[in-house]
Structure formats: C-alpha cells, structure tokens
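Quick start: what a row looks like.
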Amino acid sequence: MDLNPLRYFQFVALYRNFSRAAEHFYISQSALSRQIAGLEADLGVQLFERDTRSVSLTDAGRVLYERCDLLLTHYDTILELTKAAGQGAAGTLTIAVIASFRHVYLDLVGEFRRRFPGVETVTEEIAFDALSDAVANGVYDVAFTLDFMVPYHEQLESVEVMRDRMVVAAPAALGLPGKVKPVDLLPHPVIMNRHGVPPILRRLRVAAAERGGSASGSVTLVPNTPSALLQVSLGRGLNLLPKQVLEHYGDVPHITVSEIDDSEAACAFVLVRRKDRESKTIDNFVALVREQRRLGRLGR
C-alpha cells in the first residue's frame, strides 16, 4: 500500500504551500502536484482550492486532514503488528493440556510469554483422549500429552519434552518392595486409566498370557487417573502411571509406590503439533521446548 500521497497531502495542508511541502520531501513541486492530483482522483473529491497566491482546504480536504494523522498512525501500528505476526511475535497460541501435566508446561508457557509478550497464549484443559485429535483437527495449535497416547497420524509430529518412567501405585497393605519386575505384578489385578495403553501394560498382558492366565480379565479400565488411584487406595488393585503424574497428586493415603525394573517402563511427555501447519508462532514455541530440553531445564 502506497501511503505517500496521503503524507504529501498532510504536509501541503500543514504548510498551505506546495513548494514548502515538496522541499520537505526532497521532491520536485511538479512530482508532488501529480501525487496530490492522483489522490484526488482516487477519492473522487477536490482537496485543495488553489490560486496563484494561496492554497486552502476544501470541506472534503478539512475532513481528511483532521483524520489523516490518525489513519497514518493506525496504518503504522497495523503494519508493525502484521510484521510481528509474521515473525511469530504476535497473534495467539492455543495449547491443550490436562491438569496433572502442570509441571511440564507451566514453566515453558511462562518463559514463552516472557519472550513473546505480544502473543496471547490460551491454555485449556480437555479430556485426555482428545488431546491429539484436537491438534490433528486444528482445534488447538499444540498439546502436551504422553508418547503412548499419540495415535499414528501422518499429519502429527511429536516433540519430546521430558523423559519419565511408569511406576506402580499399590495398596500399602500389599507390601510391595521399592523396585519390582513385571512378573511380580502378575498375581494382582491392575486398574488403568482407559485412555491409552503404555508398553509396560502390554508386557504384563503378554506375560499373563504366557502363564496361561486371562490377560483381559486382569485389567480393569476406569475413566481417569483419580478414579484409578481411588480404587488402589481401597485395595482393589494396582495402577501403572508416569512417576511425575503420580507426584502431581501428592501423598495419596494407603498407597505405596514401586519402581518397575523393565525397559518397557520408560515413557515421555511430548508436545504434539501438525506437521503441515505453517505458523511462526508455533515454530517459536517448539524451538523453545527443544532449547529448554537441550539445556536440561525440563524435568526433575
């Protein structure tokens, strides 16, 4: 957009003199006159009354002059915001989370806000099993979830945020040791959040089947992690969950925690985004995640 004719008009109106306005912009008076004539033609109105000795504003010229400074200021502001948005420094970033992942995303979002104060960050808690689909369908820009919760989707990309391990929450009365192997868990019923199947649970099912047991009968699915922990505290079985998720709930009465000595107990918190979504704001957030992970500032 060429706003020079409007700027030329503003100074002709200010000086009431074409020659002085031309000197201000270091252009010839004839070139300035052509710019003003073009502006008048575009607007379909006459802006100046001219004679050999003076220049005065018409009614239309006065209306434009009274408002052109505001127009130019708004244009400059809009241009700056547009450029900032193109660099990911303005706009909105929408993030889908669950409450028990606060330790994963709070510091990251806070640091992002500090670096990019012009970006509005909207963080919303949604159902665990809806996180990845919400990003795939464009409802949110990114989501924090667990690696085994991300379904295969050619449009999704997972960026590791921090590593973790699955642990066993068990009824205190059961007296499990501080470290157990999967085989040690086979005699006990398992209560799981129904959203997602961690590799360690598949390992237990295979081990149970190899022993001739009914793998499906040894696992009870409940709506969410608080429900699972409640069942454990009532002595109805074991729950397998990421260590840092369990720490989010603090000390749960009548529950002890055991580590699982198995490579399949490894898991990771990840950030999910669409591969085909071109957004400098999202790119900046992903870059921040990778930077903070590289610097060892994520996780405990």
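That is the whole record. The chain is about 45% helix and 25% strand. The chain has three domains: 4-86, 91-162+268-294, 165-266.
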